[in-house]
C-alpha cells in the first residue's frame, strides 16, 4: 500500500506552491505601493482642486466685471428705434433735398426765361427808343407846323378851361378865346377854334 504522502503527492505539491505564493509579500507590497500612489494622487488632486477653485473664483469675478462692462447701457430695442428714427430723418432730408433740387431747377429755368424775356425787352426797348426818337422828331415837327398854321398859343394856367390866343400876322391881330368843356361840347369848341383861325 502506498503511503499517504505519496498518494497525495501532487496535491501536496500544489498546496506547497500555494503556500509559498501566499507567503510572499510581493502582492501586498504592490497593493501598498498602489494605495500609497492613490493617496499621493488624492493629496495632489486636493491641492490642485483648491488651486482650480481659486482660479475659477477669480475667473468668475473677471467674467462678471466684463459682463458689467459689456452690458448694453440702454433698454433693449432702443438702438433699433434710433436707427428707424434716423432712417426717417434721412428720408425726410432726401425729400427736402429733392424738393430743393426741383425748386433750384425751376428757378434756373425761370431765370433763363427771364433772361430771354429781358433780352427781348431790351431789344424791344431799343427798337422803341429808335421809333420813339423818330416819332418825337415827327411830333415836334407836326406841333411846330400846327403852331405855324393855326397861330394858336395855348394857356395852361387854368387846365380845366380851353384857353389861349390866336394871332394873325397879316392883320396884326391877336384874339383871345376861352371855352369851358363842362358847358361846351367838343364839337362846338372845334367849330369855335376854326372860326377864329
UniProtKB/TrEMBL annotation:
Key words, A-Z: Cell cycle, Cell division, Centromere, Chromosome, Kinetochore, Mitosis, Nucleus
Keyword Nucleus assigned: yes
One GO CC term, this protein: kinetochore
Keyword presence, Cell cycle: yes
Subcellular location(s) per record: Nucleus; Chromosome, Centromere, Kinetochore
One record GO biological process: cell division
A Pfam cross-reference name: Spc24
Function in brief: Acts as a component of the essential kinetochore-associated NDC80 complex, which is required for chromosome segregation and spindle checkpoint activity.
Similarity comment: Belongs to the SPC24 family.
Assembly and interaction partners: Component of the NDC80 complex.
Name of the protein this chain belongs to: Kinetochore protein Spc24
Amino acid at each position: 500500500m502506498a503511503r499517504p504522502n505519496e498518494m497525495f503527492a501532487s496535491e501536496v505539491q500544489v498546496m506547497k506552491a500555494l503556500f509559498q505564493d501566499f507567503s510572499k509579500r510581493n502582492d501586498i507590497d504592490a497593493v501598498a505601493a498602489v494605495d500609497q500612489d492613490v493617496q499621493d494622487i488624492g493629496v495632489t488632486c486636493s491641492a490642485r482642486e483648491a488651486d482650480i477653485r481659486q482660479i475659477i473664483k477669480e475667473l468668475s469675478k473677471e467674467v462678471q466685471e466684463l459682463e458689467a462692462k459689456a452690458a448694453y447701457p440702454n433698454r433693449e430695442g432702443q438702438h433699433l428705434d434710433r436707427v428707424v428714427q434716423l432712417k426717417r430723418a434721412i428720408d425726410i432730408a432726401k425729400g427736402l433735398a429733392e424738393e430743393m433740387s426741383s425748386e433750384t431747377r425751376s428757378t434756373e429755368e425761370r431765370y433763363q426765361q427771364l433772361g430771354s424775356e429781358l433780352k427781348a425787352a431790351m431789344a424791344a426797348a431799343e427798337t422803341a427808343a429808335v421809333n420813339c426818337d423818330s416819332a418825337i422828331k415827327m411830333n415836334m415837327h407836326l406841333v411846330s407846323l400846327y403852331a405855324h398854321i393855326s397861330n394858336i398859343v395855348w394857356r395852361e394856367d387854368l387846365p380845366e378851361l380851353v384857353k389861349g390866343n390866336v394871332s394873325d400876322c397879316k392883320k396884326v391881330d391877336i384874339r383871345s378865346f376861352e371855352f369851358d368843356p363842362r358847358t361846351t361840347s367838343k364839337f362846338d369848341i372845334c367849330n369855335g377854334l376854326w372860326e377864329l383861325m
